[in-house]
Amino acid sequence: MATTGATTTTIPLDPESKKSITLALFNNVKNTEQVRQCLISGKIQCCLLKPSLIIDPFQIVVAANKAVCSEIFGELVTKTVFMEILYNLSMTKSISKALKLFGSENNDTSILAVFIHENKENEKETIMKNFTNIIQGEEISINKIGIEFSNVEEIKKIYKITETELQVSSMVDLIATRISVRDFASF
């Protein structure tokens, strides 16, 4: 069951993992380069996404759950579980292309941050406090992701979604399926 704070959303992952993700959306970010440097240096631990390529939080849940399971089984393709989320969101098997496509860039003014944490409220609060002390931007409701930020045409292009498919399924279901089976099928 997802829990929502004033602006964030926390969603439990596979029960065996005992982990959840928290999603936080920031707009009018003035220090993206500094935030990315804190990420690279290990001062913060999260995944920074371009919100324009996310149609629904469920898209991230599928990629994050796959990443956490890969970490548990020692099967990460990338170096960290956070990079694995970016990799799982992408349809390419190239890690660098996946990072470039879905990861935030220094000039981005909107950032979607994904945090993975144990199912303990104090851990989530500590992670969020550390992050909000660094980022200079307006935290807004994650519910705006599919309404104000998503570039639907770009998303359809990335996931190779056709109008015919959209007549029988939702875009989020098509994307979730592609993420889930990417290693076994080609689109």
Any descriptors?
alpha+beta, 6-stranded antiparallel beta sheet
Strand-residue proportion? 15-25%
State the helix count: 9
Characterize the largest beta sheet: strand count, sense, and whether it forms a barrel. Answer: 6 strands, antiparallel
Q: Report how far the terminal alpha carbons are from each other.
A: 31 Å
Mean pLDDT: 92
H-E string: EEEHEHHHEHEHHHH
Q: Give the % helix.
A: 40-55%
Give unreliable regions as ranges. none
Structure description:
The longest helix has 16 residues, at 57-72. With 187 residues, this protein is α+β, with helices and mostly antiparallel strands. The chain is globular. A hairpin with a 4-residue loop joins β1 and β2 (9-12). It contains nine helices and six strands. It starts with a strand and ends in a 6-residue tail after the last helix.
In short:
The chain has 187 residues and is an alpha+beta fold. Helices cover 44% and strands 16% of the residues.
Topology:
Blueprint: E1 3-4, E2 9-12, E3 19-27, H1 32-41, E4 47-49, H2 57-72, H3 81-89, H4 95-102, E5 111-118, H5 121-132, E6 138-140, H6 145-149, H7 152-158, H8 163-166, H9 171-181
Antiparallel strand pairs: 1-2, 2-3, 3-5, 3-6, 4-5
Helix pairs in contact: 2-3, 2-9, 3-4
